[in-house]
Amino acid sequence: MYGLTMIKDYLNEILNGSKTFDARAYTTNKRGTIALVDSRSMKVYGYVDLISVREISPQEYASWHCTGRWSGYVMQADPTKKYYAWDFVNPRKEEKPYKLNGEKHTWVIID
Length: 111
Prior knowledge:
Low-confidence stretches: none
């Protein structure tokens, strides 16, 4: 299984259902169940099913990031770049978050 690292605030919003996708500046060919991993602590907090990737506007990319403690922040996205939504369904919280060993990368392999 793969784990996707991200800021815990966003991870929590995905797991509680207030966000249904992750906004990234690149695409992925991965699909299926993935773990959501806090990029700071490297703990797995839950799981989602990554079902599709679609292109989004720079405005949508920027606004996705301006929630929670960043609410009201004005983020600028480069209008010449492409941005993507990684669509998730079926968020599930891990009862007892657990720590992974290893290096921090965007994608980590979970045995």
